Amino acid sequence: MAEEIKAAESAASNFIENFITEDIAEGGMYEGKEVHTRFPPEPNGYLHIGHAKAICVDFGMAEKFGGKCNLRMDDTNPTKEDVEYIDAIKEDIKWLGFDWEDRFYFASEYFEQMYEYAVELIKKGLAYVCELTPEQMRENRGDLTTPAKSPFRDRPVEESLDLFERMKNGEFEEGKMTLRAKIDLASGNFNMRDPVIYRINKISHHRTGDKWCIYPMYDFAHPIEDAIEGITHSLCTLEFEAHRPLYDWVIDNISSPCKPRQIEFARLGINNTVMSKRKLRQLVDDGYVNGWDDPRMPTLCGLRRRGYTTASIRNFCEKIGVSKTNSVVEYSFLEHCLRDDLNENAKRVMCVINPVKLVITNYPEDKTETFEVENNPNREADGKRTITFSREVFIEAEDFLEEKVKGYNRFYPGNEVRLKSAYIVKCTGCKKNENGKVIEVYAEYDPETRGGDTPDGRKVRGTVHWVDAANYLDAEVRLYENLFTDPEPDVGDKNFLDYINPTSLTILKNCKIEKSVEGAERPMNYQFMRLGYFCLDNDSTAEKLVFNRSVSLKDGFKKK
Ligand code: ATP
Ligand code: MG
To answer: Which ligand has an atom closest to residue 58 CA?
Structure first.
């Protein structure tokens, strides 16, 4: 697995890599420096598959150039952040196979330095305290042909210094004042029209408590965080492209110890799901799903619980690549990547999820025989396991029809069917209850076909999976569909909650699985023959086995 990832990584190159290579070749400020990146999540939710892409880019680039990548909690907003989220973020990154070593930081650790840099800007005449209210600021922002206005722009440095300090000391109410960078009120880029860099916010911060009542804006804070950590390349998503001039302006105008370069790449979107943390939180809080790690969620913990492997997600991120154009990737491509991995690596077992009993009437009543079958036809080294066979076995109810239907090769009276790896049996009929429901199917076996081969070479079209009714475990199986019925549930003015798929979860409580899975522990991926890839769920106990279907066998992904 590790080799596979490495091979894929070294094969692909992308525009970010090219930029970094150019920077190194040019020398200058990057001379003698090792490539240093960071992954900066805001600890206000769990990571999702979109973050996995960013993590693979940030850590992946550092790895490729033999550099380093920091993990930084971007916690400059004094909102509720939770240790629960921080711990989960760390766990997910480790699970993806990346390591920040001892470089774990909080942006809030830099508040003091950020404040000092703001004072430096004021002293240089590059920032001023503005007393426009948020509404007035909006009214005065101008348009493409009219510059923005602020009557406070030319206030003396001393006055701004004094007011800024008093803002910090809590003397003014929220919204009364801001600190603005003095850049260009007529700029075609509105982010440069004297953007607010500090605001008053009288909320305690989860780490700094009530020490601060002014907080830096993202566009001011982020370049400083990067500079303090000696980041050489600050990789982020495309929506920050128009903010890059401001990023560079901040770096150029503070006494920055280094000059990080911001490079933007496209965000990952996947259809039939939502990816914003706010929306994901709403799904959790309003009970549409059973927690952040619900197997239907696009969160990394949800995907992990669903049975996704590290290799499948890393390969997915590698294959979608990085580009400058936002696009939506099909969910089926993610599934394709999982199937690719599990086809190679998952152990095969038989499980019947909608059982009906098949009685082999000519088989001795108390006989049981055993078969040695391969655990994984793709890999001999995975060895063999023993399965048992006796007079009664479970088959899927849908593998029996009372009458022949064109193209149907499974059980119907008179038809021969192969019980996978065991015997060829001929269906002789069924028994129904008073409601007309089939409760038993009957067949006779051909003792000459042990192992499932016909000695005379006669054709047997249908092969079905089965479980020995004298030797099995009960299991619950959970089947999943997309969480949303609409491919783009949150595009435009759609309310994503209107598109929740009512059948996204099906629980089957009466499943029968071969005993070889006894004692299995998570993470354990299986192929249930003919049904798909499954894994043990967290809810599974020794007494009650619970499996999730990770993905079906049929590949819905069509190469375009
Ligand atoms: P959300 O809108 O889900 O809250 P966010 O961008 O606010 O996302 P952060 O915690 O700030 O979430 O993100 C940390 C990093 O992950 C950022 O660098 C961000 O650009 C990146 N990231 C977030 N979502 C995606 C995505 N869908 N595709 C690629 N990168 C992403
Ligand atoms: Mg964010």
So the answer is: 1
